[in-house]
Every structure is written in C-alpha cells, then in structure tokens.
Write a structure and sequence with these properties.
6-stranded antiparallel beta sheet; Elongation Factor Tu (Ef-tu), domain 3; alpha+beta; 2 domains
C-alpha cells in the first residue's frame, strides 16, 4: 500500500505538473539535531532563500511556521494557520509558501477516499457486483480530468476498499 508521503507526492506531482519551476521552493532542515515541538529557531540548508514573512511547511507533519526574523537561524512562530506544532527529525524536507498545503491535500484525499468507499460498498452490497465489474465501471466513470486524483490513487483506494470488504466478510 502506498504510504501517506507517497500519496501526498503523487498529488503534488499532479497539481504542479512535471515542470519543477512551477513548484514552491523546497529545502532541508540542517539543524544538527531534531526539532522539538516547542523549538522557536531552526536552520535550513539554504538560508539565503528564506526571509521574514515566508511560511515554512514541514512535509512530514504538515505543520506550518511563520518566519518572524532571520539571523544565523530562522526564528519561527510554530503552529501557523491553525496547524499543530510537532517534533520533526533533522534533514526533513520543508516547503516555502506552499500553494497546496499538506492539510488541504490530506482533507481532499480523505473526502475522495470516503466517497469512493461508500459508492463501492453500495455497488458491492446492493447491486451485488464483483470487484472487477466495479473496477470497469469506475474506470469509465472516473476517466475524466475532473476525477484524475482518484485515478492516480486507484491502487491505494482499491487496497483500502478490499480491507473494508475483509472486515465485512465479503
């Protein structure tokens, strides 16, 4: 099954496209140690690319921080934009001023996943269709740009649905 990080990356690849110039700047923490949830200063590998007012997002946790000052370290306000401060390991990938935040990606994905599972369960339980028949129907229904995110993550969605079926004893 695809990990959460892989799913997030696939969504970003779809949203930003293959041109890396369209993506927000990414950097690595260079803190000489992990960053605790209460830490107010961090160091990144390329300090010159960051400034006061930038929003830094930790790619592992989705926490956002506002950069309040910059000297030899970045001074940050943790838990910005309603996110929760969390510990992260050194060399964590961070994104500068993300257009599509981790929180937004996770929220949309969860909505798509739940919608997909509900519709699939209806087809299985009410119409008594096989998983293969549902797959063919969903391919035909979802084969449009509007639902491309579902198609990108079809493997993960099918695995999740199959887990739900095992729970139901089907």
């Amino acid at each position: 099954m695809a990990t959460q990080a892989v799913v997030r990356q696939r969504v970003k690849d779809y949203l930003y496209g293959s041109n890396y110039n369209n993506r927000p700047y990414e950097d690595l923490l260079d803190n000489s140690g992990d960053v605790g949830a209460g830490d107010g200063t961090i160091t990144v590998a390329n300090m010159a690319n960051w400034g006061v007012g930038d929003i830094l997002e930790f790619n592992t946790t989705g926490e956002q921080c506002l950069i309040t000052s910059k000297q030899s370290h970045l001074h940050i306000s943790r838990g910005y934009n309603g996110t929760t401060a969390a510990s992260v390991t050194d060399a964590t990938l961070v994104t500068k001023n993300p257009k599509f935040t981790i929180s937004k990606i996770d929220n949309v994905y969860q909505l798509l996943l739940m919608n997909f599972i509900q519709k699939s369960m209806f087809l299985l339980l009410v119409l008594e269709l096989s998983v293969i028949q549902i797959g063919i129907m969903l391919y035909l229904i979802l084969d449009s740009k509007k639902y491309c995110l579902c198609i990108i993550h079809a493997q993960l969605l099918w695995e999740t649905m199959n887990q739900q079926l095992l729970i139901l004893g089907r």
